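Have a close read of the entry that follows and walk me through the local backbone shapes. See right below:
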Amino acid sequence: MFRKLLSISLLIGVFWITAASAQSSPEEVYFEKDRLVIETLEGKRFAFTIELAITPKQQARGLMYRRGMAADSGMLFITDTPREISMWMKNTFIPLDMLFVDSQGVIVKIASGTVPHSLETVASGQAVKAVLEINAGVSEQLGITEGSQLLYPTFE
């Protein structure tokens, strides 16, 4: 009898611990993948594998909780209509370059080397259609500047 009660108590304890950890861990969010190209002002083209953040749930999650990202990868946040966008780095472990993009696909602002876990907002400063997040330093390394063009169906 004592062993049976001990077993039941242990099972209940394991259940509560599992339930508590599930609540504190981030919920999985699915992101569709695609490819886009950035063309620099010098005419050089660079392809990126991107994840699309389109729904409010996807946009709220973004790249939070990730520990790394391939050098030729990124996440594209797309809005229905152009508007001023502000973002932050809460729960984001990867330093990022944020590329703010107008409705024609032109990069109008780059916030380079954003600080992981920062609660400081990074704002577009004007109405934009999208934000592309890539690894910090990649913009400078590839010569991607304001005026560079995203080649992607959203902007055609």
User: Anything to note?
Assistant: Residues 2-25 have pLDDT under 50 and may be disordered. Strands lie at 32-39, 45-53, 73-87, 96-101, 107-114, 122-135, 149-151. The longest helix spans residues 2-24. The two ends are 72 Å apart (CA to CA).
